[in-house]
Design brief:
The complex is a heterodimer. By secondary structure, chain A is mainly β. Chain A is built from 2 helices and 11 strands, in the order ββββββααβββββ. In chain A, a hairpin with a 2-residue loop joins β8 and β9. Chain A starts with 14 loop residues before the first strand and ends with a strand. The chains are: A mainly beta, B mainly beta. At the A-B interface, β1, β2 and β11 of A face loops of B.
Chain lengths: ~150, ~180
Amino acid sequence: CAVQPGAPLTGPNDAQITGRVSLTHDGRRDAGGFTYRSAGARQSWILFGPTGTAVGELSSGPRGARWQPTDGDALAAADIDALVETALGVAAPLASARDWIWGRVPLGASARDGGFNLNGWRLEWLKYTADGVPRLMRLTRGDTELRLVAKTWQ
Amino acid sequence: DAAVALDQRLGAITTLSASFTQLARDAGGRQIQSVPGSMALKRPNLLAWQTQDPIPQRIVSDGQSLWIYDVDLEQVTREPASSLLNTPAGLLLNLDSSALSERFEVSQSQVREGIDSFTLIPLDEQIYQMIVIEFAGALPVLLGVLDSTGQQTRITLREVQLNRDIDDARFEFTPSADVDLIDAR
């Protein structure tokens, strides 16, 4: 049940969240795992394939963003959202993850029933943990759907 | 020869149920995942496969489709029945004598006291570089696959029961209303 907590959440800045993610695009779906870390202005996403093999790491900080595949050459870009599209061929609004992964509406986004709209993306917080932290989230834009379920928080 | 010996063992299995641990290692041999679960299969193409945390998942082959239910993500993917062959467990169901000698180079060895190990090398490039099936007598006890990326998946079977009556209802799957279904057939 999607119980919306009262006060806006203020998640810790330095955190590690692990979970599973699926990408549905053009009628095709791939699923795998993720480890998200944030520390100050830096954030990183390690992406895992369906059977657990690391696919690569996306990281971003004050000096730009970088994609380091497990095997293959690194890629860099000014910001993480542009990099994701170049590196993985599919867009994802990760620049504002620091907010939405904790249930906060990012700056510049327009809040709307149980989620928000930002740069053409629609995010919905579908389910929360007992203490009001988002557990299941869906991000959609056109025929792309990203679905994340957070499982551990440290 | 080894293919005939393996065919006799597999051919004798009409149903199988077991609990298992699925262990995945990356190409460097580093353990990346260990998932407990249980499975049942019934010739020719029925499978019920369930894993628990860290990756709760249900895979059901009901003869018409292969259903892959990701419990955490609340998503179900429906694939054609033939996708069963891409799953390690599906191999156990579909390796019969004609397939064995035509598609694989089969060798047999005794790895430990009372354990017969069969190694299958696909003759044409497939998803798997190598498949290993180990038996303790008539009971399959290990199913291992080395995939094209060099990743190893070892499925150790326990509490194996062969040729018991298993109701077809166990191989039925109906996605619940609130689950996100994608039809990938």
